[in-house]
Amino acid sequence: MLSLGALVSGCGDGIISAPVQVLDVVPAPFRLDPATVPELAPIGGRTVVVSGTSAPVLVERVGSAQFRALSLVCPHRGTIVEVASSGLRCPNHQAVFANDGTWLSGQPTAGLTPLDVRRNSDGSLMIGGTLTPPVLSLNRSAVVFLTTLTGTAPAAQTVAIGNDGGGMLGDLALALTYGPGQRTGWLSLALSQASAPAILTLSAQRGTLPIGVYSATVTITGAGVSNGAQTLSVSLLVQDPTTPAALQLSSSSVAFTAPIGGTPAAQVVQCNNSGGGALAGLAATIDYIAGGRGWLTATLNQTTAPAALTVRPSAGTLAAGSYSATVTISANGVASRTITVTLTVTAVGLLVTLAAWPALANVGGVAGSVGNVNGGPVAVTRLSATSFAAFSMRCPHAGTTINVVNNGTSFRCPNHGALFNSAGVWQSSPQRAENLVPLTVTYTPGATTLSVT
Ligand code: FES
């Protein structure tokens, strides 16, 4: 049973909610069609929903197709937070929260609990359950355009951008870089919309490019994704149909780093025909050079060029060390080409699964006590879309375990009150303290885990 605006008091003071008895902080998912709620029509529009026996939920439109949901249960003592035009305030001990649920002032406490919001195919929403960060997905990792000196412009191609995780994926953005030292300007991009699902359309124009292979990389980013930026490899082959076929690879080496037992993100090598005619019979064989065997797979998506070779290592049970192999690509009637693959397996550290720590979905997010290294608890901070830092949570002053405070923006030692910012830098305390001890983070952009040693 759903009730909308059930907490509207209409007392004229801007407050639209009042305390009620709370049963469930995180409600079971319920359906809400925003098209039937006039308050949700404009961006910034909000409404309060009560579903079944759950606590009230604040739903807000934060973009043309994006919504945010927060449980209105105060994390301090469970009182229902009031929703006012100026913000969110707990009437019990006066904790104040920003519209996104971040604690601002008053009684120190955590932020309001964000709830998962997913869009159904009919435009309605499923709200409820613990928020999991979005995962940026592409339905292909490479695009190849073929043309000749006299041919017409190749047809445009599309890539579907989706969200394989939770919540809503917005703020999609593109960055385009061309191969080092190569001619530029031959590729144009168009994004259907800034939130997933979206379609990226790529168009290539030969212009005055001579015969050759031209490459570019499109980097796609989205707000709060747990898997970081994703890349799309783009090639333009300008061919002379009168010359024989020739095998060309987009890369002659690939390198991976993984903790023991980890599986780094796969990499794709494009196998192209840089000559004329057709190039068929593509096959891939693996030869292990140094270290163990059986840690690599190499899979072609088709046997005619252009083809995509997916190279995927698995550290499995490999011991720490360096491993290498070659992948030989052969094809009918042309010289083979090889790719050198190296895998560096790092010593056992703390393996952190990003999806288990929603705070790490956002740049600046801090997750405390994610596990232990050297017998002490560890905090991890997301520095950028592709990098993290980690610290020991032992206070450098007297070794007391510090706490994450101020809604994840800093750390405080409960012993003598030393305060550190999210970068681990000492800020203040009665006794001068050193900065938090940094730890080593190993992370491959796009991977779902990181390792702390
Ligand atoms: S219950 Fe909300 S501030 Fe204490």
Explain this structure to me?
There is one protein chain. The chain has 453 residues and is mostly beta strands. It folds into four domains: 2-130, Rieske [2Fe-2S] iron-sulphur domain (Rieske Iron-sulfur Protein), CATH 2.102.10.10; 132-240, Immunoglobulins (Immunoglobulin-like, Sandwich); 243-348, Immunoglobulin-like (Sandwich); 350-452, Rieske Iron-sulfur Protein, CATH 2.102.10.10. 0% of the residues lie in helices and 45% in strands. The chain has strands at residues 2-4, 30-32, 46-51, 57-63, 66-71, 82-84, 87-89, 96-97, 103-105, 114-119, 125-130, 136-138, 142-148, 157-163, 173-178, 187-191, 198-204, 212-221, 230-239, 247-249, 253-259, 267-273, 283-290, 296-300, 307-313, 321-330, 337-346, 350-353, 366-367, 372-373, 376-384, 387-392, 403-405, 410-412, 419-421, 426-428, 438-439, 441-442, 449-452. A seven-stranded antiparallel sheet has the order 1-3-4-5-10-11-2, with no helix packed on it. Strands 29, 30, 31, 32 and 37 form a five-stranded antiparallel sheet that branches. The protein has a four-stranded antiparallel sheet with strand order 6-7-8-9, with no helix packed on it. The two termini are 49 Å apart. The site of FE2/S2 (inorganic) cluster has 10 residues, from loops.
Give a short account of the largest sheet. 7 strands, antiparallel
CATH class of the largest domain: Mainly Beta
CATH topology grouping of the largest domain = Rieske Iron-sulfur Protein
Percentage of residues assigned to helices: under 10%
- Tell me the count of domains: 4
Which ligands does the model contain, each kind named once?
FE2/S2 (inorganic) cluster
Q: Identify the strand order in the major beta sheet.
A: 1-3-4-5-10-11-2
The second-level CATH architecture of the largest domain is 3-layer Sandwich
Mean pLDDT: 85
CATH level-4 homologous superfamily of the largest domain: Rieske [2Fe-2S] iron-sulphur domain
| Overall number of strands | 39
Q: Flag low-confidence runs.
A: 6-22
Strand content: 35-45%
Shape: globular
